[in-house]
Amino acid sequence: MATLLHRLGLASVRHRILVTVAWLVALVAVGVGAGTLSGATANTFSIPGQESTTALALMKERFGEASAGAVVQVVMAAPPGQKITDPANATEVTRIVAVLGKLPGAAGASNPLDPEAPAVSRDQTAAYSSIRYPVQPSEVTDEQREAVTAAIEQARTGGLTVEARGEALSNPADIGGASEILGVVVALLVLALTYRSLVAAGMNLLTAIVGVGIGAAGLVTLTGFTELQSTTPILAVMLGLAVGIDYALFIITRFRHELRRGLSVEAAAAMAVGTAGAAVVTAGLTVVIALVGLSVVGIPFLSEMGIAAAATIVIAVLVAITLVPAILGFIGVRALPRKLRGVPATSDVSDGRGFIRGWANLVTRHSWLSLIVAVAALAVVAVPFFSMKTTLAQRAAEGTTQARAQAIIDTRFGPGVSSPLLVLIDGPDSVRFAPRVQKHLTEVLPKGTLVLPPQPNQDGSAALVTIIPVTGPEDDRTVAVVHAIRDSVEGGEGSVVYVTGNTAVSIDVSQKLNDALPVYLGLVVGLAFVLLVLVFRSLLVPVVGVLGFLLTIGAAFGATVAVFQWGWAADAVNAGSTGPILSLAPIIIVGILFGLAMDYQVFLVSRMHEAHAHGAAPREAIVTGFRQAAPVVIAAATIMFAVFAAFVPEGNDTIKPIAFALAVGIAFDAFIVRMIAVPAALALLGSSAWWLPAWLRWLPELDVEGAALERHPPSVDPLPSEPAVTSA
User: Fold this and answer.
1) 374-389 tens-digit pLDDT
2) Quick count: other Cβ atoms within 10 Å of Cβ 371?
3) What is the Cα–Cα distance from 705 to 552, expressed in whole angstroms?
4) Where are the domains of the chain?
């Protein structure tokens, strides 16, 4: 692989104009596609084959599109000491409802004072009107949302407290906001400090932006042909930007090293791609496998997210091994600080000076203490993980109209109004069978649960029984009600009974994801072990790497639960709202962190392995490899942390906990696991760390650092126009 990549790097730098133009044409093409072919995205989650999902499809058939469309609840509360049914307030409610029913795109608005379908609180101080749209929440346009907001503002002038809630008011995740800009600015600062060259820093960032731009625009274009989750493009941008910067960093750093060794610009670029590029391809492949592996859990929207993010990683790798060397051919020795141009690199890379070497000596000399402190610290942070709860019901950020509306609903109507359950009786005898279902549910469900009379469809082929639980959608008692209905009600007399509604869908999806998480975690852990055995030709190094990954995952989940579920320091990160973690977040976090953790393991430990293979004593090999690789890994982890962390304060509510978990996970993995726990554990293992049983010696050797190229460097005949390395 190293030889092939060397040839690719050489071809890219020699044909740099063609390569650069090709990538720019690709960027413009997908940009035009995104601007002209993009479509709507979805912000609801469901799993085909689940009872609740099947029932929603049947409801759409039996009751029409409006039954499964978007709904906005407009909550109206009377002034203190008054009732919503007082004549003046009732007149104002009727006026507001008339305005709501004529909003753009609305199919109508219910009147809460209608005696046949009242929606008034028991104390008669509040009421709510439901605006129905004949489309899914993601298809409600920005103009229609703005019309609702304007109508609410106008309604408040009549003396009533008026707020609104509903999925249709939530904007899909946007790309190109302040989060991405902040991450890019921090990355540029870190790169400038690392390279001590604005030219190299800017080039690194530019190539990463080209790659992530192509990936993101490609996904936006794809929305015109298939429905994607609204969070998919922004997740791909977040991940693609982070790895794109890091992968270019690894190659540019090696290019600068080869220049200082005295190689020509073309030879240095080719050698950088053949050596560091081999590690980039291996690391990128690891991330891709982990993301595509999300498909094994059998959840379509999760598979879609994984494949989309994996495609962005593939583009980042291709940019790193083709566009980066091409741009390096243009800037040449300007990638080096001016004072280092023409100055040969220090030949002894293992001298005793420098903080990095001092740190490595400290950790390896006090290996037991270092390992115990690192493991104990991460174990303490991981404690909240064991109380993690998940849900698909997203809470509105505090201070928003959605949050205020929810507070009125919970206080005046009860939290169960926000989590109605729908029992669909489907079949030719459903209308006759439905009253028996209602009577049975009234008897078996917990006291206080409201079971409304059945509502048949027009042709009598189906009926709906609405159930209002006592508790909210995130409460375990609501989950128990769903299971109680399914366990106690069976179809009969030619009818089939289903339990559905947003709450039931959330429960079903969360349960499926929770069941899939251990399976997926086992898959990626097994994959990590096999990959590391192939890379390092060792059994104990992979064990150390996998255990370190598990510590990272536990600590990342623990910190996320403490902030986003318990509310610790929630204001500091602008969490918006606290409560159970979004159920799709844990499995996505595992997949992404696995790939990134293995990146750092490969880049760091492969240098140690190489030093040991060249005859260094076990502890000295660790110190030497650490000194060579740690500075680049620290810079890469700092950049990745900054990119992920930038999405937390102002990011989309769905992305915030994922970005936070990835940011702290990267910090824990790079600065505690890989910088303390791994070198300490390897120092304790000594020579046995690199032991491979005889019966496994047949395994192929993956030269991820391009050692073969270093031992036998290919000759690169310089072109007449190539600049000298020592030019200023």
Assistant:
1) 999 999 999 999 999 8
2) 20
3) 25
4) 1-37+177-340, 71-165, 354-399+515-704, 406-507
